[in-house]
């Protein structure tokens, strides 16, 4: 579980710093060579891997009628056989019935009552009569997209932003909207590629060079189909194969667009949108495989411009850094917004480590059309790690294991870390990794919060709010205020509410 | 011959005179009956309601006006005063929307607004001309407006069904097409204060009045 935690937030870059070339060893020549396409081959799905001990997930209210949620003017009554009273008898008994009707295919009657009458109270009054078998208000029945994904009941984060009712309005978007994921890559396709693994030092242990290794990649089984991925681009390897060698980007992609209601795994917010995998940060294996690039401001900046130029309407950046300003990033985000892309940036995970200012999210707060996102836990409380500051604009579920343990984190499918981080298992078990074995894992961080906002932004875009600045305004307008009244440094304008945002306003309410 | 003519003429004249005297003695001279204290007419009308909360309605419906249809009954007193009870309906479909950065985005979620005012009005008629075919009139009154707003994906308690009190001033001209039929054109200004503005787009636009200006044509049945 330690290395799971390590995946938290934007730690992918930092992890690479732990890995230093072994002294005297020359890095192997960088590159990856296609060995086999394995077209259409999904990765191995090992199912739920991040289960909290002794807990199998929290039950979710399946929805349905609630008190007061009935059609006014009607009460449904079943009279006891042969005992249906005359209307005047009901009126005499104080039941304001205007008419009665027996519809087809019904063994009950529909009593018409004044629309402003309390149908539930009248139903109770009727039910108490001896000539009534049962009586009830005409409770409204709603379509409910409650995904049948088996581990959906462990995804507290989606009901927390009223996602089920939001899906009634917009069930997962369509393929006309592209969401770019600027991250460590995405497990978006299969194939066998040859890499060369150099020697390196991890902690005090020197791991030998493995030389040429044929790596098997798989499409994340619960993220496909393969044709939903568009314009893939890798700015670390400078090619069009943005494989995720870390797991972070695939997890983020899952929150945005995990295949949903497919009786597999878990669910995602905007499960029918197109995904553009853009790799802009490197992981441990990118380093070991001697990737030519690194996740730096210039790499990220290029990724932002690439996404905007290739049709992304939402750009998710669950990445960031502290330190000096980044004008190259600010210019790129302004460019993307000017091209009609809404940019979402993780607010940072530095709160319990000094609360250092997150440069990227600070930039977002200056740009109308880009937002910085803080994380909340299952109780919508401020997550213990989530950076605070005057640049935090919104909050979304990112998980908070400090209140609720691991199950209070965010569950999505990604690569099985047991098969990736083999060097963490000691020198004797060190072997080439596999990127075709998947499972559902709990992660936490503002990295996990941001994709909720990105997914919702994609749905809102499809509802007709297409301007990035208007999307930002809508998300803020319908956010549920938390913490201090109004905007505050922990939650910004509040926790996003998907249903209210997509539903907008009526005339009088 | 001339003596005979004189005789016949004399007989005829005597007969007419005696007949007239007889009639005068047995039947009263016909006179017009007293007019009734009031007449009751029914009416049906159609027109256009231009709403006072124009920006709110325009954001939702795409326009700030819509057709209305209604009817009622009117009692016209001999003294030219009239009392009227009428009901009409405005029902239009639009979409839920959101106003962001001074721009309205419609969200594709169907919404229906139904306004049904029940009006009681009184006023005075100014008959013109000997035959009184043209009758201008003016008046005012009070109304009770039912306002309903329903939309797809709404929970029951999220739809709106409320009633508000309004006031109206009206004026028009009636023209008699026939002894039993008339045609009227009417303009009515209605105010329904504080019916809107507590939420939704009407709050965003700070529009609170559900009233508006109604222009309608009316077909009258009755004298």
Instruction: Please identify the structural class of chain B as seen in this structure.
Output: alpha+beta
Integer average pLDDT of chain A:
88
- How many runs of DSSP E, i.e. beta strands of chain B? 8
- Estimate the strand proportion of chain B: over 45%
Q: Quaternary state, please?
A: heterodimer
Description of the structure:
The complex is a heterodimer of chains A (509) and B (223). Chain A is α/β, with parallel strands linked by helices. Chain A has helices spanning 2-6, 11-16, 87-92, 119-127, 157-160, 163-169, 248-257, 284-288, 297-309, 327-338, 359-366, 417-420, 446-463, 468-477, 498-503, and strands at 19-20, 32-36, 44-48, 70-79, 99-101, 109-112, 132-139, 178-183, 191-197, 200-202, 205-207, 211-217, 233-234, 274-279, 314-317, 342-346, 370-376, 394-397, 410-415, 437-443. In chain A, the strands form five sheets. Chain A has a seven-stranded parallel β-sheet, with helices on both faces. A four-stranded antiparallel β-sheet of chain A has the order 5-6-4-7. A three-stranded antiparallel β-sheet of chain A has the order 1-10-11. The longest helix of chain A is centred in the last third of the chain and has 18 residues, at 446-463. Helices cover 17% and strands 57% of the residues of chain B. Chain B has an eight-stranded antiparallel barrel with strand order 1-2-3-4-5-6-7-8.
Write the layout of secondary structure elements.
The complex is a heterodimer of chains A (509) and B (223).
Chain A (H helix, E strand, L loop, with lengths): L1 H5 L4 H6 L2 E2 L11 E5 L7 E5 L21 E10 L7 H6 L6 E3 L7 E4 L6 H9 L4 E8 L17 H4 L2 H7 L8 E6 L7 E7 L2 E3 L2 E3 L3 E7 L15 E2 L13 H10 L16 E6 L4 H5 L8 H13 L4 E4 L9 H12 L3 E5 L12 H8 L3 E7 L17 E4 L12 E6 L1 H4 L16 E7 L2 H18 L4 H10 L20 H6 L6
Parallel strand pairs in A: 3-20, 8-14, 8-15, 13-14, 15-16, 16-17, 17-18
Antiparallel strand pairs in A: 1-10, 2-9, 4-6, 4-7, 5-6, 9-12, 10-11, 19-20
Chain B lengths: L1 H25 L11 E14 L2 H8 L3 E13 L3 E20 L2 E23 L8 E18 L8 E17 L4 E11 L8 H5 L7 E10 L2
Antiparallel strand pairs in B: 1-2, 1-8, 2-3, 3-4, 4-5, 5-6, 6-7, 7-8
């Amino acid at each position: 579980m330690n290395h799971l935690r390590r995946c938290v937030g934007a730690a992918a870059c930092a992890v690479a710093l732990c890995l230093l070339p072994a002294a005297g060893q020359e890095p192997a020549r960088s590159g990856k060579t296609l060995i086999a396409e394995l077209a259409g081959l999904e990765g191995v799905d090992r199912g739920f891997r991040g289960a909290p001990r002794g807990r199998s997930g929290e039950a979710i209210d399946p929805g349905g009628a609630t008190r007061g949620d009935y059609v006014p003017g009607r009460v449904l009554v079943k009279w006891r056989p042969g005992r249906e009273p005359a209307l005047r008898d009901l009126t005499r008994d104080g039941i304001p019935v205007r008419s009665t009707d027996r519809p087809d295919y019904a063994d009950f009657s529909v009593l018409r009552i004044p629309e402003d009458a309390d149908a539930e109270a009248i139903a109770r009054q009727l039910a108490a009569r001896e000539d009534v078998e049962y009586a009830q208000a005409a409770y409204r029945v709603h379509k409910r997209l409650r995904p049948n994904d088996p581990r959906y009941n462990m995804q507290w984060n989606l009901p927390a932003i009223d996602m089920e009712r939001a899906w009634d309005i917009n069930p997962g978007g369509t393929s006309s909207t592209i969401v770019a994921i600027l991250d460590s890559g995405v497990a978006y396709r299969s194939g066998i590629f040859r890499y060369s693994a150099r020697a390196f030092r991890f902690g005090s242990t020197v791991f030998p060079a493995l030389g040429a290794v044929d790596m098997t990649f798989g499409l994340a089984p619960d993220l496909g189909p393969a044709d939903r991925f568009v314009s893939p681009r890798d700015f670390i390897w400078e090619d069009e194969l943005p494989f995720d060698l870390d797991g972070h980007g695939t997890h983020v992609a899952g929150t945005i667009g995990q295949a949903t209601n497919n009786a597999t795994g878990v669910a995602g917010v905007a499960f029918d949108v197109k995904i553009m995998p853009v790799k802009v940060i490197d992981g441990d294996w990118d380093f070991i495989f001697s990737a030519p690039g690194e996740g730096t401001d210039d790499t990220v900046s290029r990724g932002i411009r690439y996404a905007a130029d290739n049709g992304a309407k939402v750009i998710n950046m669950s990445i960031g850094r502290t330190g000096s300003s980044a004008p190259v990033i600010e210019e790129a985000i302004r460019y993307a917004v000017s091209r009609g892309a809404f940019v979402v940036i993780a607010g940072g995970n530095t709160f319990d480590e000094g609360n250092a200012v997150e440069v990227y999210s600070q930039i977002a707060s200056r740009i109308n059309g880009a937002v910085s996102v803080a994380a909340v836990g299952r109780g919508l409380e401020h997550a213990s790690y989530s950076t605070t500051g005057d640049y935090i604009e919104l909050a979304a579920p990112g998980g908070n294991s400090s209140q609720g343990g691991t199950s209070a984190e965010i569950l999505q499918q990604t690569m099985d870390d047991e098969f990736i981080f083999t060097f963490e298992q000691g020198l004797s078990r060190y072997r080439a990794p596999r990127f075709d074995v998947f499972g559902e894992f709990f992660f936490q961080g503002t990295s996990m919060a941001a994709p909720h906002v990105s997914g919702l932004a994609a749905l809102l875009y499809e509802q007709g709010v297409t301007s990035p600045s208007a999307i930002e305004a809508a998300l803020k307008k319908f956010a549920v205020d938390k913490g201090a009244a109004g905007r505050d440094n922990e939650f910004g304008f509040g926790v996003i509410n998907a249903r209210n945002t997509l539903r907008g306003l009526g005339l009088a309410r | 011959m001339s003596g005979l003519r004189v005789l016949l003429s004399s007989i005829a004249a005597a007969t007419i005179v005696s007949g007239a005297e007889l009639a005068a003695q047995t039947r009263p001279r016909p006179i017009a009956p007293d007019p009734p204290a009031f007449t009751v007419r029914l009416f049906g009308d159609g027109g256009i309601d231009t709403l006072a909360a124009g920006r709110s309605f325009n954001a939702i419906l795409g326009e700030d006006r819509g057709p209305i249809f209604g009817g009622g009954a009117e009692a016209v007193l001999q003294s030219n005063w009239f009392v009227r009870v009428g009901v009409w309906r405005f029902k239009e479909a639009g979409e839920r929307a959101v106003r962001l950065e001074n721009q309205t985005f419609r969200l594709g979620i169907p919404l229906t607004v139904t306004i049904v005012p029940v009006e009681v009005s009184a006023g005075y008629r100014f008959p013109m001309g000997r035959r009184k075919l043209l009758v201008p009139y003016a008046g005012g009154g009070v109304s009770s407006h039912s306002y309903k707003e329903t939309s797809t994906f709404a929970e029951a308690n999220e739809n709106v069904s409320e009633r508000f009190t309004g006031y109206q001033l009206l004026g028009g001209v009636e023209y008699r097409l026939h002894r039993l039929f008339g045609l009227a054109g009417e303009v009515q200004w209605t105010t329904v204060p504080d019916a809107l503005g507590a939420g939704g787009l009407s709050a965003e636009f700070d529009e609170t009045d559900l009233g508006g200006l109604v222009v309608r044509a009316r077909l009258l049945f009755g004298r």
